Structure formats: structure tokens, C-alpha cells
Amino acid sequence: MTLCLAWKIENNIYFASDSRISRMLNSNFITISDTAPKIFSIPVRIYRSQFDLLYDKDWGICLAGGYIAGSGYADTLSEVLSNLQIANNDSKIDYKIIIKIAFDIYEQISRELVETGNKEALAKILITGICPIDNNEFLFEFGFKILETGIEYYSKEFDFNEYEMNLIGDDNAINYFKENLKRHNTLDYFRLLKEICRNTDIKTVGGNLQAGVLQKTHPKYFSIHGIIESKLELNDDSKWCVKNNWLFRSIELNPQLIKDKVHVRTIFLSPFEKERFELIEEAKSLNEK
Questions:
Q1: pLDDT tens digits, the chain, 289 residues: what are they?
Q2: Cα–Cα dist 54/56, whole Å
């Protein structure tokens, strides 16, 4: 399972997630990995003819649930949505048509998992993008409901006037987030997610944070972002100092990294500045002793 968040600030839509994969063993959840990508960029390309490209942007998805299904969704959506062609030389295609194609893929993969006895591998998806026609942003949830008569799959568009925060994932994590949301402001969503990752009572959420942002000002609209976190460590002079960890999908990826004149151009968010300044003061205090 996991915990995925989606919220909107002005015209930007933010995704945030943990990085844990877990499974049930003897009535207990065990951790399989704390380094799993949960947020993906999905290329959407619309052609009028074989070489006449009308639309070439990235949408974003965030996954919660079975990771085998989730990786299948991400890979298949990337392949299919990057090869769309308008019939009859039309020049317009509404985002809801593309969403219908995406949901059809989601439902087919999900049904296949159920038919082969892998119901526990099902996943939910948040998908966001910008409409090729009116240039407005949107957010959908693809999910499922387990009923007595079988499994029902659904596609739901969020109304940002109605939903301030959209969450999918572990029910305990969602309830914890909602109960503690009042003591946080918008900029603290990452802090609350980190708090849940450290909560040993919520075993299906953990690892490091990851993020993605949909921005009209970005050349591709959606992009994966790294997260800056800080910790105390001793330097070569045996003095305490604050080290910044530039984490991109749980790996250390310093933005100054240059290999053979190639520069890694990754955008990083810094939601833990308060904690960093507290560590700076702690380091000063420790070095004065």
C-alpha cells in the first residue's frame, strides 16, 4: 500500500508520496522495499498524421496499492498515450477522451489480475494533466470497490472547489492525515506525510518522500521533483555540521553532479527548511560544548 497526496495551489497540482512496498505475511505487514517510485511522468503525444505532431506534453500519475499492477499501468499508459492519432484529420481532442482510453487500460489490466487470482495486487491511480483544448488542469482517480457481487471499477474527476486535499492509499494513513491536518498549513503537507512515514503503527507507509508537480509554465507540464532533507553529521575536523541530502526517488542525486560535462538538471523542493535551521542551531550548540 502507500499514501499518495494531491492538492492544488493556484494553477499548480502537486503530488507527494512515500516510497514503501509492503505485503501481508501471517497477518502482519512486512516491508519489501523503501525505495519504490510511486510518481511517474506519462508522455502524451497527439498526431494529426504520421509526422504532424499536435500535442507533446507530460501528464503525471501517482500509484497506491499493488506495485506489480501499478508498474504495469505506468508502462502501458506511457506506450499507448504517446501514440495517439486524431481520426479524420480533426485538430482537437478533449482530455476526457484521453482519460477514457487511460481508464480502459486501467480496467483491462485490473480485470486480468483478478482473473488470475491476484486481487490483492490491484492499485488505485491519481492522474493529472492539462487539456489540449482549453489549457485547463484536471485530476482524476481510477479505483475499484470490492462488492459482494464482484469488483466495480470507477473513474472520478475531482472538483478542486469541493476537495481541498485528495488522498489514496492505506486507510489508517488517510485517517491519520485527516485527523492531524488541522494543525498543519498547506506548506506542511510534506511534513505531515513524513510524520506518517516515521509512525511505526502505520506499517504500510514509509521510506523517503517523492514529489511531482504539474505546472503550465514547465515546458512539459509535469515533472518529477526531488526532496531536500537534512541531517547532522561529523565533518573531517570532528565538528558537527548539517548535511543536505538531495533525494530523488530515494537515491542521492546532488544537483551539482557533473559527469563528463553532463549536468543532471533535477528540480528539488525544500519543504523542511524549519528543521534544517533547527539542526544548524543544534550543531552550533554541540560544537560549543
A1: 789 999 998 889 999 999 998 887 777 888 888 889 999 999 999 998 778 888 999 999 999 988 877 888 999 999 999 999 987 766 678 899 999 999 999 999 999 888 887 777 889 999 999 999 999 999 999 999 988 888 999 999 998 765 578 999 999 999 999 888 877 655 589 999 999 999 999 999 999 999 999 999 998 999 999 999 999 999 988 899 999 999 998 888 876 666 677 777 788 999 999 999 999 999 999 998 7
A2: 7
Q: Domains in the chain, please, with CATH?
A: 3-226 (3.60.20.10)
| Burial of 86: CB neighbours in 10 Å, binned 0-12, 13-18, 19+ | middle
Q: Is 247 helix (H, G, I), strand (E, B) or coil?
A: strand
pTM (predicted TM-score): 0.90
